[in-house]
Amino acid sequence: LNFVPTQSGLYTLRVTSPQGCIGISNAINFIVTGLETSSANSLTDWSVFPIPFQNELRITAQSPFSYLIMDLRGVVQLSGFSENTEATCLTENLAIGMYMLKITVNGQSYVRKVVKE
Length: 117
Description:
This protein is an all-beta fold. 0% of the residues lie in helices and 50% in strands. The protein has no helices and 11 strands. The strands form 4 sheets. A 4-stranded antiparallel β-sheet has the order 8-7-10-11, with no helix packed on it. Strands 5-6-9 form a 3-stranded antiparallel β-sheet, with no helix packed on it. The chain starts with 8 loop residues before the first strand and ends with a strand.
């Protein structure tokens, strides 16, 4: 069973046994940032490495692109534009943790999770 929340809010899991006993999980606060995850096919147009990264993150694409590196709240931490097909993002000032990388190539935006060690 898979469930993907489409709205921010508190979510619980309710399970009922065949005997009628009910169990309810603790609530989880889920925040939707409005970002869509890219499909596997669209990832062939660009790449990002190394994953996980430390002090720099390299992005390559088939065309010029712009990028945003956001924390999990959707706050932009780094942004830039590449007039060619690659960019190196200096990330030494980012805290260790998970980020979302949004890249826009030829008018289409893709999002990928990236991790800083």
